[in-house]
Amino acid sequence: MGIETEEKKQPKTFGVLLCAEDSDFVKKTYGGYFGVFSGLLAEEGEDWRLYRAVRGELPRGDEIDQFDGFVVTGSCSDAHGNDAWILNLVDLLKNLVEKQKKVLGICFGHQILCRALGGKTGRAKAWDLGITCIHPSPSTLRLLSSLNIPPHLPVIECHRDEVWELPPQAEAMAQSEKTGIEMFRYGGHIMGIQGHPEYSKDILLNLVDRLLQRNLIQNFHAEAAKSSLNVKDPDRESWKRLCKSFLKGTLPL
């Protein structure tokens, strides 16, 4: 009598390419930004790994095939900058694109993906701080119909750079009153989101205070951002469904 053996199913593996240093607040409250992202996206049985890209830590070429997908985070740096770690990240992203790995870019990650694919980024006309309502395009809503994504999608924003020009063959997915390209996709394996689906209100409030202390924003920016938090809430559940479905390969792109 033969004995049948089942191959043990390998857990899905994802990498977080952290492009900012953890603030004291985020470390104390969430265990760092890695904890913020894994709290939003990770599921039981998955293997999530941290690479501090801002310090030059990136997966080696021979490690990439182990991964099912990557998340590129926000940053205090400019996606159009030429610091060594940024250029190394761009090279890695080009490699991931070639290998058709799933990559989700958030804020700076959205912009650096655009750059790696041949698009253009730069300074926006003004800061976008607080809760902004973005509007997915009709074709995006049809694409995401199985996720019940609403036509008006509030998200926390914190950026003064933006995508100026989409890469060739990329498709804009959403816009807002302030930003023309709030989301884009490239094929079925690359997605950029300008806003911060992973942020909670307390993260934004702490960040606004730190930006104000460093004179990177003015009082009216801070007041407007804080006021927006009293008007509406970010639709974290819709964003969670969207990001997880894309990253885990259940979204029919």
From TrEMBL:
Q: Which PROSITE patterns match?
A: GATASE_TYPE_1 (PS51273)
Q: Which InterPro entries match?
A: ChyE-like, Class_I_gatase-like, GATASE
For this record, an example GO cellular component is: cytosol
Q: Which domain of life is it from?
A: Eukaryota
Stretches assigned to the Glutamine amidotransferase domain: 67-200
Similarity-based family: Belongs to the peptidase C26 family.
Q: What is this protein called?
A: Glutamine amidotransferase domain-containing protein
